[in-house]
Input
Amino acid sequence: MANFNTHITVAAVGSGLLSTLCLQVGFIGTSDALLLTLVGTIGGILPDVDLQHSYPSRIIFSLIGMIIAFLWIFSTKNELSIIELWIIGLMIYSAIRYPLWMLFHKYTKHRGAFHSLVAALAFALFSTAISFNFFAKTAFVSWLIGMVVCYGFIIHLLLDELYSVDFMNRRIKRSFGTAMKIIDTKQWATSSIIVGVAVGAFWVSPSPTVFINTLLSSETYQIIGDRMLPSGFTL
Ligand SMILES: [Zn+2]
Output
């Protein structure tokens, strides 16, 4: 199993490279490039959310708690005093960070349903839906955010599999095959919830047409090709 430092470093480098590319071809501005690097890095530790008492699990539940608390604070009009906003915000955060976190770990097991491609897709669609509906991102940027979460997530699964091959002894550890799977058939209840989240998130996501057209357009690859190497350089 790859450790936390490996996961976060590889995901940060991978997302940084991809964000630079998106920035240079004019897909996004500077602030969105930073955001993409951040969400890709989070994607890279996201599968280990099912490992209780690990950094990823604590970081992710803290992040979710903060995001939901702030979304609530921003959405309330000025009826409440600052002190009330602080207290309720803190209560929302704590409820997610502790009771919900404990409840979550009661029903999940490490390298179970969350180490799967279906979970990567669900988290990606969920991020797209949140970015579009709550953070006023354009349809294109929202889909890009979802795709980068998926990208970071898959880097994690690949690293886990890579680390279960013992190169020195050329043997394969027992954990091989537990990280990268399409869906966890041993945990049907959790897997069904994950599929449900994916379908629900897709339902409230913006149309992916512009995003898909841009990805499939030959012009996009022309621009990438032109910007990739220093001018005057040809392969
Ligand atoms: Zn893992």
About this structure: The first strand starts at residue 165 and ends at 166. The radius of gyration is 20 Å. Residues 72 and 89 are 8 Å apart (CA to CA).
